[in-house]
Design a protein that fits this description.
This protein has two domains: 1-83, no CATH class; 114-218, no CATH class. The protein has helices at 4-12, 14-23, 25-49, 68-88, 105-110, 126-133, 145-151, 154-168, 210-217, and strands at 53-57, 92-96, 115-119, 138-144, 176-181. It has a five-stranded parallel β-sheet. Helix content is 50%, strand content 13%. It is α/β, with parallel strands linked by helices and 218 residues long.
């Protein structure tokens, strides 16, 4: 489900979103809360229907845009409220953030997030994220999709998988799920986004799913 900053950033632009936290903080608090309440109503529908894991998009809540101080002031309370609502229904919460993650780990843990989704080895050190999250939050990721899986060789993909398993899973206090980040798509024969392992098994533009990935990685 979309995060607050998806809506706000697309509404006014990323630069305006951050500038207004300084120039009109009361307005930004009010706007974010409106979006948060709208998202929470949708979450309530999902919880009533019955789910095991709620995936919340927090891509644009990372430190590529927000300082840790601004995150704690404007966004952490929203995530904390969402997590509390989900936990009351016995549902775990995963936050999808692929970059600018390390400086926010403490704040995400404090908010009660159960799993951090989007660990991309091209932008986040696997050892660093493991050391910082150990025993506090589960991890989901470890393999890059847009370059390694799409454009590199089978040997490179297998090497990255082995690296992720070695650095993220041993002696884990909480779970680790191997996954490729981000979405992997095929545009057509001869293009740079034609992975070596698809061999015509999916249609142009179709997103690769678990079935394709599992077959490719053996």
């Amino acid at each position: 489900m979309g995060g607050c900053c998806d809506v706000v950033a697309w509404l006014m632009g990323f630069e305006n979103m951050i500038v207004l936290t300084a120039e009109q903080p009361d307005f930004m608090h009010a706007l974010l809360e409106i979006v948060a309440q709208w998202n929470r109503r949708r979450l309530e529908v999902l919880l009533e229907a019955g789910i095991d894991l709620y995936l919340k998009r927090i891509f644009y809540e990372c430190t590529d845009f927000w300082s840790p101080r601004l995150y704690r002031e404007f966004l952490q309370p929203i995530l904390k409220a969402d997590v509390e609502l989900a936990h009351q229904a016995g549902v775990k919460v995963g936050g999808m953030m692929t970059t600018g993650t390390l400086p926010l780990v403490d704040a995400l843990v404090e908010a009660g997030l159960d799993v951090l989704i989007g660990i991309d080895p091209l932008v986040t050190g696997l050892t660093a994220i493991k050391d910082k999250t150990r025993g506090r939050i589960a991890l989901w990721g470890g393999v890059n999709g847009y370059r390694t899986v799409e454009q590199d060789s089978e040997a490179k993909v297998r090497m990255e998988v082995a690296q992720a398993m070695e650095k993220l899973s041993p002696a884990a206090d909480l779970s680790f799920r191997l996954w490729r980040m981000c979405a992997t798509r095929r545009n057509g024969p001869g293009t740079t986004s034609w992975p070596w392992w698809m061999n015509g098994e999916i249609s142009p533009g179709e997103e690769v799913n678990d079935k394709h990935t599992e077959r490719a990685l053996g």
